[in-house]
Design a protein that fits this description.
The structure holds two protein chains of two kinds. Helix content of chain A is about 75%, strand content about 0%. Chain A is mainly alpha-helical. Chain A has one domain. In chain A, helix 2 runs antiparallel to helix 3 and helix 3 packs antiparallel against helix 7. Chain A is globular and about 60 Å long. By secondary structure, chain B is of the alpha/beta class. Chain B has a domain of about 60 residues. Chain B is built from seven helices and ten strands. Chain B has a six-stranded mixed β-sheet, with helices on both faces. In chain B, strands 2-1-4-5 form a four-stranded antiparallel β-sheet, covered by helices on one side. In chain B, helix 3 packs across helix 4 and helix 6 packs across helix 7. Chain B is globular, with a radius of gyration of 18 Å. Chain B starts with a strand and ends with a helix. Classes of the chains: A mainly alpha, B alpha/beta.
Chain lengths: ~250, ~240
């Protein structure tokens, strides 16, 4: 990796995003709008004794989940565009290293996710009185790391897609199992053993657990830091695998 | 004179089909060499092999003394793809500055490269809003910006108006005079006369590798298109003769 090339690549991706005002608007507005829907869905639901209010419980997890889904999709399509437009092949004939490109995407879309998560968190905390024992800054941090994980998985999956149609099909494959098994619908400890085993190897389970730790503890816990490290580690692993599947030569 | 490019028995298969079957050729440094042949003859595959993005079935490709695709060549070789590989959602200037940064060059050099291809007035325009010819010149600016020693250009003058085409060829010769080696593909035969040397390929085989004057002398016709036609007929007559015997 070369810091100058990495910075130029990150800047180039952010500049592309800046020219696409509609995408920027969608990135910022959609999670906040969906949280509004969730708030009114649960506004009249009773709070079970000894548990957080339903909106607090669900909104907290969604704050981490929205960047994951959206950045996975955005990255899969962006990388596929690099492939089909020929810019990827052109880049691979320059001094740019594969990791410069992949980390450039991770950093650029990670930064975009911080903005997105900050807006969604502001809406949740100020407009809808989201109540968490821990700090909202940590919630945004987890959301950002989730986004980087999504970017990494998107880059990896795009290596196996030849067309946009195929790339989009990877979203349910990668996202849906993690959403179902992360502990939002059924607590992980109450799942059948084999489902729990699957859940244990899905990185998003750890980011949901980290968010729940923030929800119920005023100070960051050791479990939260461990979970954050697992999600970050999974992101780096996916980026390295993506670099390994990116070939300079093709047939 | 040292050779910028040396191809030895280059064989490339793509999608189960033989695209290049045993090409042997050299390109001397500081020349403008035209790679000519009809559409589908293997020109782009040959250029991709030179810049190291094509899987090669057999043979050796040596570029500036190194095997094609070697890491140290990425600063020294500039590649223009046939369909302009620039970011449609960035301006011409932003594209040039990004590719300049990859080669360790600054914004001033990027802006100069944009001016050199006649796009100064369109520098702030998004590439998506450019005409086909302008888009291909934007890509050319991104290729020229690192001052590479070898330029591999895949149909750089397609879609350009005659005045611009003449300007681009003048620029290519100025670069060659300053020591740059250029390999330029084209399927338009009237561009052949502008080259110092010619490589003619057809169906993955090299049919001619000579100067335009020598090609004219060998075939006895002045028009290069006619000359190539005769060479192709001669080669095919030879093959047919072998098959008959």
């Amino acid at each position: 990796m070369n810091p100058r090339i990495l910075a130029a690549t990150t800047g180039r991706i952010l500049r592309q995003l800046r020219h696409d005002r509609r995408t920027v608007a969608l990135l910022v507005v959609v999670p906040a709008a969906l949280l509004t829907v969730v708030y009114y869905m649960y506004v009249d639901q009773p709070t079970p004794p000894g548990q957080p209010a339903p909106f607090d419980r669900i909104a907290l997890v969604l704050l981490g989940f929205f960047p994951f889904i959206i950045m996975f999709l955005v990255t899969s399509i962006a990388m596929l565009r690099e492939r089909t437009s020929g810019t990827l092949e052109r880049l691979l004939t320059t001094p740019l290293g594969k990791l410069d490109l992949l980390f450039g995407y991770g950093i650029a879309f990670g930064l975009a996710a911080v903005v997105q998560a900050a807006v969604a968190a502001a809406v949740a905390y100020w407009l809808f009185d989201l109540d968490t024992a821990g700090s909202s800054g940590l919630v945004i941090l987890i959301a950002a790391v989730n986004a980087v994980l999504a970017v990494a998985l998107g880059l990896l999956c795009s290596a196996f897609a030849r067309t946009e149609f195929q790339a989009v099909q990877f979203m349910p494959v990668v996202v849906a199992p993690q959403l179902l098994l992360c502990g939002l619908f059924v607590p992980r400890t109450e799942m059948a053993g084999w489902l729990q085993a699957v859940s244990d190897v899905l990185p998003l389970s750890y980011s949901v657990e980290a968010l729940q730790e923030i929800g119920s503890n005023a100070e960051p816990t050791a479990t939260m830091w461990r979970d954050l490290a697992i999600v970050g580690g999974a992101a780096v692993l996916a980026l390295v695998l993506a670099a390994a599947t990116l070939r300079r030569r093709s047939g | 004179m040292q050779d910028a490019i040396a191809l030895r028995d280059l064989v490339v298969d793509r999608g189960g089909r033989r695209v290049l079957s045993g090409i042997n050729a050299t390109v001397p440094c500081g020349t403008v060499t035209g790679l000519l042949g009809p559409s589908g003859s293997g020109k782009t595959t040959l250029l991709r092999a030179l810049v190291g993005v094509q899987v090669v079935t057999a043979g050796a490709v040596t570029v500036l003394g190194h095997p094609a695709g070697a890491a140290q060549l990425r600063r020294r070789v500039g590649y223009l793809t046939q369909t302009p590989s620039v970011y449609a959602d960035l301006t011409v200037r932003e594209n040039a500055r990004y590719f300049a940064a990859l080669q360790g060059r600054g914004a001033a050099q990027a802006d100069q490269a944009v001016a050199d291809v006649g796009l100064r007035a369109a520098a702030g325009q998004l590439v998506a809003t450019l005409s086909g010819g302008q888009r291909s010149r934007a890509a050319l600016a991104c290729t020229l910006v690192g001052d590479p020693e070898l330029l591999v250009l895949d149909e750089p003058t397609v879609g350009q108006d005659p005045v611009l085409r003449a300007e681009l060829w003048a620029r290519f010769h100025a670069l060659a005079a300053a020591g740059t080696t250029l390999l330029i593909s084209s399927h338009v035969m009237d561009e052949a006369a502008r080259c110092d040397r010619l490589l003619l390929i057809r169906e993955g085989r090299l049919i001619a590798n000579d100067t335009p004057a020598a090609v004219r002398a060998a075939t006895g016709v002045d028009d290069l298109e006619e000359a190539f036609l005769r060479m192709i007929q001669a080669v095919e007559a030879g093959t047919a003769g072998q098959e008959a015997s």
